[in-house]
Specification:
By secondary structure, the protein is of the alpha/beta class. 29% of the residues lie in helices and 20% in strands. Strands 1-2-3-4-5-7-10 form a seven-stranded mixed sheet. Helix 13 crosses helix 17 and helix 14 crosses helix 17. Bound molecules: beta-D-glucopyranose (BGC).
């Protein structure tokens, strides 16, 4: 008894001493922290940046501005600076690789929610959904210990052939800018820095590392830069990735005009510019022309331009130390902005029900109904005995493909699984592959037999992420459906006229079969919930509301980049000249009066919408609000994307026929009517004047065109700007 009391007392003494010791250590560290201003989360970011900057040595500064593995920068333990983790990308958090190779790290804890491809997000025209997607990816990135996420990609779809179009947000600078801003705000709300890419003019994969882009200043300013500007000024993005290609003879990762003059000076970007992987080219240029962080693929990290070679030039006094400080400052600023040093930094979450729901919703809202004769869709499972699902894409998984934007998905519902589940046990769903790379005629014969035996056919074809289709590192050779699908679809449609074609991937030529099929859906790459989303659209649980973020041409030769020969695409002698200037996408088709297969902004619904009562309400300083009503005149609920285009009557300089300057997605119950207001400011009427080197809003008459697509304009109002306004 006595002995145990004594033992208890001893234990208590030890416990009390330990507690005192811990308390002492805690308060000591608090004192230390209080003395180190940069560790005090209550201090302004700039004060913290300057304080930490004053504590890092020259060598440590150098270590902050270049990689120490494929996706990291070095830690500085004595100052509590952790290793920074960067990772792809736009569609979720990529599987871990390396550290010094591109091969998988072989982990079992690096799965992620696979969101639909960027072009599908753009097709939702729903910036709130962009926010939710960014937020979900940000949460997963934090849960996976990342700091900077390499996305979104906002290069403009200049030619349908570009292998990375699926990652980007379509052909329109305004739509891309709005959609990427929502995404960035969502992602960065999770203490992650987004990294908008590839700045700028990375519009093709052919010779991407070297190709020199010659583009006129107007097209640069009006078409290729606005999405980046929006990412900076309205998304508040903290990181920007330079592009591999050159602009006017200078590589974009070390391009004084793009990085220093435009991005930093004109737009006021305060974050960091990183190179694309191995995209830097020269120590002096990297040092002086605005690059803040060099990332790459070579393993000799000390040999990076911004490593030992830069240090040598700094030590010899050939390059100024102030330039290094500015780079470090920008890197530290991003760390503070994302709360790297702060106790309450968000820790994220993985594969939550919300993340899955976001992935599904983006797919549901991004799938575009392009054709629906005699209301074949939506399908009624109760009226069907047999559905033939045909096509390799019905079972093919895509989320992991495409290269750097690929995802090791937690799971991926393919279209066949989604259809089988939704059709229910009473419907017999038969599957036939129909085509395959190197597949034989027997595949087609079996598919035709399956088509004949069914009430309805759902054909799932299109492209995939194989090199040479929708994949980084190469462009497509043409816009044709591969593997004999043109012939196959015709045979299937002949065998069963109730054929619904669903295409995955980016745009293809359809003339061979389009008039032979009654229904067509564009499903892009719809992510890991894609099969469920598609089934919901097919069976009417979801009313399709997506609209094309890019013109679907009838044939490649109709497109602007193809109209000017090889020098305009893919380039000759290492240079590609953007001879079409401003006339990209619908700007070209409208101005040149070329009939597209499906126009920009087009997408059908299972209901109908009526537009009426347009009023233009002038504001101050060139602003005007377009107010109008939209009514759901059909029998099911649905969403309409009302689009606002501006047409200038007598421009001084050539202007495209019309340009998108506003849009609004409106959700309406049957019979419901809503008043929609789309505000415009003077920028909506502005163009870039090469000679004056500034944006100019010219006093003139304008038409404000409101419609359901770029070629289905329902309302028109006139608006006069009285004075010329120059804006920098
Ligand atoms: C791509 C980038 C990507 C990077 C890292 C590059 O090849 O162009 O988009 O973020 O690799 O994977």
């Amino acid at each position: 008894m006595h002995r145990s009391t004594a033992r208890l007392r001893n234990l208590l003494v030890v416990f009390t001493r330990l507690t005192l010791l811990i308390a002492l250590l805690v308060s000591l560290s608090k004192i230390a922290a209080a003395q180190l201003l940069y560790l005090d989360a209550g201090q302004p970011v700039e004060a913290r940046v300057e304080d930490l900057l004053s504590r890092v040595t020259l060598e440590e500064k150098i270590s902050i501005i270049h990689a120490d593995s494929k996706f990291t920068t070095a830690a500085i333990p004595r100052l509590g600076i952790p290793r920074r983790w960067l990772d792809d990308g736009p569609h979720g958090v990529r599987e871990d690789i390396g550290p010094d190779t591109w091969a998988s790290a072989g982990r079992t804890d690096d799965f992620s929610t696979a969101m639909p491809a960027g072009i599908c997000l753009a097709a939702t025209w729903n910036p709130d959904l962009g926010f939710k997607e960014g937020e979900a990816i940000g949460q997963e990135a934090r849960a996976r210990g990342k700091d900077i996420m390499l996305g979104p990609g906002v290069n403009i779809l200049r030619t349908p052939l570009c292998g990375r179009n699926f990652e980007y947000l379509g052909e329109d600078p305004f739509l891309s800018g709005v959609m990427c801003s929502g995404y960035i705000r969502g992602e960065q709300s999770q203490d992650i820095s987004s990294c908008v890419k590839h700045f700028a003019l990375n519009n093709q994969e052919t010779e991407r590392g070297t190709i020199n882009v010659e583009v006129d200043e107007r097209a640069l300013r009006e078409i290729y830069l606005p999405a980046f500007k929006a990412a900076v000024q309205s998304g508040g993005v903290w990181s920007v990735m330079g592009a591999y290609n050159q602009l006017r003879g200078q590589h974009c990762c070390d391009h004084d005009y793009l990085l220093n003059k435009i991005l930093k000076d004109e737009w006021g970007f305060k974050g960091l510019v990183m190179s694309d992987w191995d995209g830097a080219h020269d120590t002096r240029e990297c040092a002086l022309n605005g690059l803040d962080l060099e990332m790459g693929t070579e393993q000799k990290y000390d040999d990076y331009y911004l490593a030992q070679p830069y240090l040598n030039l700094l030590k010899s006094g050939e390059l100024p130390l102030a330039g290094l400080d500015e780079k470090v400052r920008r890197n530290l600023r991003v760390m503070f902005a994302t709360h790297v040093f702060d106790a309450g930094r968000k820790t994220g979450s993985l594969n939550t029900a919300t993340h899955q729901a976001v992935a599904r919703q983006v797919a549901e809202e991004g799938i575009v109904l392009l054709k629906n004769e005699k209301q074949l869709l939506p399908l009624d499972a109760a009226k069907l005995k047999t559905i033939a699902v045909i096509g390799e894409n019905a079972t093919r998984l895509h989320a992991h493909g495409g290269d750097s934007s690929g995802i090791k998905a937690f799971y991926e519902i393919n279209p066949l699984d989604g259809i089988v589940k939704r059709a229910g046990e009473k419907v017999n769903v038969i599957y036939s592959e129909g085509y395959r790379k190197d597949g034989g005629e027997d595949l087609a014969e079996r598919a035709v037999a399956a088509a004949k035996s069914a009430d309805v056919v759902i054909y799932l074809g299109g492209l995939n992420h194989d090199k040479g289709f929708d994949c980084e590192g190469a462009d497509r050779k043409d816009m044709k459906l591969p593997y004999g699908q043109d012939e196959l679809i015709q045979k299937i449609a002949a065998a069963n006229p109730q054929t619904i074609v669903v295409l995955e991937g980016t745009m293809v030529e359809m003339d061979a079969w389009l008039d032979k099929v009654p229904a067509l859906l564009q499903a892009w790459y719809p992510g890991m919930e894609g099969g469920n989303a598609l089934a919901k659209v097919l069976f009417g649980d979801v009313n399709p509301s997506g609209k094309l973020p890019a013109t679907f041409p009838k044939k490649l030769s109709d497109t602007p980049a193809a109209a000017f020969g090889a020098s305009a695409y893919p380039g000759t002698n290492g240079t590609v000249t953007y001879a079409e200037g401003l006339l990209v996408g619908y700007r070209w088709f409208d101005t040149k009066h070329i009939e597209p297969q499906f126009p920009f902004g087009f997408g059908l619904s299972y209901t109908t919408f009526k537009y009426s009562h347009l009023k233009l309400i002038p504001g101050t300083n060139g602003a005007v609000a377009a107010q109008f009503e939209i009514e759901n005149t059909g029998k099911v609920e649905g969403a309409e994307i009302a689009q606002l285009y501006v047409h200038e009557k007598k421009p001084h300089l050539m202007r495209p026929e019309k340009e998108l300057k506003g849009f609004k997605k409106v959700f309406l119950q049957p019979g419901e009517k809503q008043t929609v207001s789309i505000p415009l400011n003077k920028e909506a009427f502005a163009y870039y004047d090469d000679a004056k080197k500034s944006w100019l809003t010219q006093g003139d008459d304008f038409e404000i065109l409101i419609g359901s697509s770029s070629r289905d304009l329902r309302l028109m109002g006139k608006f006069t700007l009285h004075n010329d306004v120059i804006q920098q």
